[in-house]
Structure formats: C-alpha cells, structure tokens
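Q&A FORM
Asked by: J.P.
Topic: structure of F-box domain-containing protein

PROVIDED:
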Amino acid sequence: MGSSFSSSSPIESSAGAASPETGLGDLPESCVASVLVYLDPPQICRMAMMNRAFRGASSADFVWESKLPLNYGDVIERVSEENDGFVEGLCKRDIYSRLCTPNSFDAGTKKVWLDKSTGKTCMLVSSNGLAITGIDDRRYWSRIPTEESRFNSIAYLQQIWWFEVDGEIEFPFPAGSYSLYFRLQLGRAHKRFGRRVCNSEHVHGWDRKPVRFEVLTSDGQQATKQCYLKEHGRWIHYHAGDFVVANTCRSIKVKFSMTQIDCTHTKGGLCVDSVLIYPAECRERLQHF
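REPLIED BY: S.T.
REPLY: Here is the structure written out as tokens.
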C-alpha cells in the first residue's frame, strides 16, 4: 500500500522535475524603480550592482528626477551660460551625476555642485571673486598659487590697516537653509623637504580686535557675527551666518563681508581662500571638506 501511494503521489512526481526558483532578478523593473525612489543616491548606486533588473531600474528618469532640486532647470541654465551643451542629451541620472561635479561659472571665480548624498546645492566663491581692499597693491597683498585651494590660488595679506573683504552672489538656490563660511588661515604654508610648514612671520593684530562677519539677502535677512582669529597653521571655516531660501523664491541675492577696520593697529599674515555656501543640515561634514 505504501508503494502504491508513493507511485501515485503528485508531490513526488512534481519534485522529480526541477522547477525554476523566483528571485529578485525576476521582479519587474517598474516595481524595483518604485522602491528605489525612496532611497538616497548612494544606496541606489549600490542596489544597481545586485542584478540586471536593479541595474535597469536604477536608470529610470523618475527615480533621479526625485533626487534633483525642484528648480534644477534654473540651476542648469545659470551654470550652462559658459558651458554650451552642458546636459544636452543626458538622462536624469547622468544630469544628477553632472551636477554633482563642481561646475565653474562667472569666469571661473565660482563653483557650484550638488551634495552626492542629499542633492543639496553647495557653492564656492574664490578669492578672485571677492572685492578685497588694497588687493592690487603689492605692499599689502599678493596672489599665491597653492594646491591647498580648489581654485589653485589664494590671497595673502602681509600687513594692512584697513581690512575689508566683500562678496556678492545672485543664484537660483533651491529652497532650504544655508550656512556661509569664510575659509581662512593664519600663516603662510609651504613645502620643505616634502613636509608642510607654516610660516607665521607676518601674523599679528588679529588678537587685539575681533573680525566682523555679515550676511545680507535681497529679501531682508541679516546675520552678523564677531570673533577673534587665533589658531595658526590650518585652514578654518569661519561661520559668518545663515539664510533661508523660500519655495517661492526663484533667485536670491546674497551679500557677505568680513571686516576689521580699527585703524589703531595693523594686522597681517592672513590667507583668504574662498567663501563657502553649504546646506545648513550638512555642516558636520565641513571637517572633511
């Protein structure tokens, strides 16, 4: 009876033939893409390496459209003024990748890019894009080439009585909160026998009176801050203030300055590299910037 049962059992007969197993690779690309849209860009790129279905889904335009700033078209228009065919013929994934690369504009004095993880907009303004009092007088200032700057050049102050650095930018920043920083260093760095050495010979005057930072926007926001410059030999991002861009704002003008105009004493030995505008929620990453 037992042999009779085994010969007629449907379970055994079906098990005798190998049946294909269903796996993640059998999921429709549209379903996979609907899940990927909830991940951040680095996670999407990692998932794309799993199999063909995930690789195909990770290229879907609607997935990357959700990662781009809402006004990315305005950002592209601003940057592409000096870059013909900037994103011509590119899919949304490649547009995102292109915007994550620092893109120069305004005659190379500014760079803008998207943070790879969040899609937030970041910007750098070089010392060449700032109005610096006395910059053309070699008795006070000099331009120094260096690999320590993303613009390969800094402004170095030897000595001056009236210190003032001003800047202005008008740009279609996507909605959000932004922090503005001056990247500065006390002392002039150079290489000696392959090692970095910082010369503090001209550093003086910064401990007597604080430096004043100010940020103003075209919609009436204002922030001021004062601090002493004390630490020698390393680049520091000095926080000048924050501003907020509303959803309804197509383009905002931001003015910023750094001054120390007490003429009772001279000050010198300062390197001015750039001004950084960075998403406020990402400020903890500055130590790796």
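FOLLOW-UP: The chain has eight helices and 15 strands.
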